[in-house]
TrEMBL record:
Keywords: mRNA processing, mRNA splicing, RNA-binding, Spliceosome. This is Pre-mRNA-splicing factor CWC2. It comes from Tetrabaena socialis. It holds the Pfam family RRM_1. GO terms for cellular component: Prp19 complex; U2-type catalytic step 1 spliceosome; U2-type catalytic step 2 spliceosome. Residues 34-115 form the RRM domain.
Length: 157
């Protein structure tokens, strides 16, 4: 026991304690998560095409979207970006904000989505990481000479 503070452990006990592990990290550097879970609970009375239009218009401001999957009955959506930096920026900017163009008083909740258990998505992600120029946007941003070299390397393997 610590003589100064009985509720705080002493130094030896503190150093012997095992390091705390984060059980389920939302987004780590080891995992390239580009998908956001968005809850739009207050705007649930909109029809599906209107909600799709609002989410698309609001999140497209942060970068190119890969996919928007809406679970309308659960008032939530999964927004996948082409780039992780776009997803990070959108998460920070849109959390606890309103959808622009909406007349409802909804407040969005934007969090990192869990990994996609779909085997097709897992294989596509692995293929994009392994192949040079696997990410379309990165590939298009390369110069013409670098692109030709990457494409010829793909053809030879």
């Amino acid at each position: 026991m610590n003589p100064r503070d009985p509720y705080f452990p002493n130094r030896e006990d503190w150093l012997r304690r095992p390091a705390r592990r984060q059980v389920n990290p939302g987004c780590t550097l080891e995992r390239d998560n580009r998908t956001l879970y968005v809850n739009y609970e207050g705007a649930g009375s909109y029809e599906l095409p209107r909600i799709r239009q609002l989410i698309d218009a609001n999140f497209r401001l942060f970068g190119p979207l890969n996919n928007v999957y809406i679970l309308h009955l659960k008032t939530s959506a999964f927004v996948r970006f082409d780039w992780r930096s776009s997803a990070e920026f959108a998460k920070e900017a849109m959390n606890k904000q309103r959808l622009a163009g909406s007349t409802m008083g909804e407040v969005l909740t934007a969090r990192w989505a869990n990994e996609d258990p779909n085997p097709v998505a897992v294989m596509a992600q692995k293929r994009a990481c392994e192949t040079p120029g696997g990410n379309k946007a990165v590939h298009e941003a390369l110069g013409a000479g670098v692109r030709r070299t990457a494409e010829s390397a793909l053809r030879t393997t």
